[in-house]
């Protein structure tokens, strides 16, 4: 249950990053007079989120292997 909540939180984190990237990109567009900075900013934030996700998956799989080796089901 606890690990499921971690992944649910990551979903909210992803939605927050997309919304924040869009809002910040709109601000940068208006301030600097650029075009499409929202799309570029969201793409950069998504790439960072994927790195974060893969690091957590590796940690999650390592914790799972440790519990299986010790025989502890929790």
Give an overview of the whole structure.
With 74 residues, the chain is mostly helical. The protein has one domain (2-67). It has helices at 2-32, 37-70. The longest helix is centred in the C-terminal third of the chain and has 34 residues, at 37-70. It is elongated, with a radius of gyration of 18 Å. The mean pLDDT is 83.
The best one-word shape is: elongated
Major sheet details: none
Write down how many β-strands occur, each being a DSSP E stretch of 2 or more residues: 0
Rg is 18 Å
Order of helices and strands: HH
Number of helices: 2
- Unreliable segments of 5+ consecutive residues: none
Which percent range describes the beta-strand content? under 5%
Structural class: mainly alpha
Mean pLDDT, all residues: 83
Distance between the termini: 11 Å
How many separate structural domains? 1
- Specify the helix fraction band: over 70%
Summarize the SSE layout with pairings.
Elements lengths: L1 H31 L4 H34 L4
Q: What key attributes describe this structure?
A:
elongated; 2 helices; 88% helix; mainly alpha; 74 residues
Give a quick precis of the structure.
This protein is an all-alpha fold and 74 residues long. The protein is built from 2 helices and no strands. It has helices spanning 2-32, 37-70.
């Amino acid at each position: 249950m606890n690990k499921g909540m971690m992944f649910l939180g990551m979903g909210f984190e992803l939605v927050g990053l997309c919304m924040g990237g869009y809002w910040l990109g709109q601000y940068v567009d208006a301030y600097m007079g650029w075009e499409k900075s929202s799309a570029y900013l969201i793409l950069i934030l998504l790439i960072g989120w994927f790195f974060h996700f893969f690091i957590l998956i590796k940690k999650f799989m390592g914790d799972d292997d440790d519990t299986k080796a010790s025989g502890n089901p929790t």
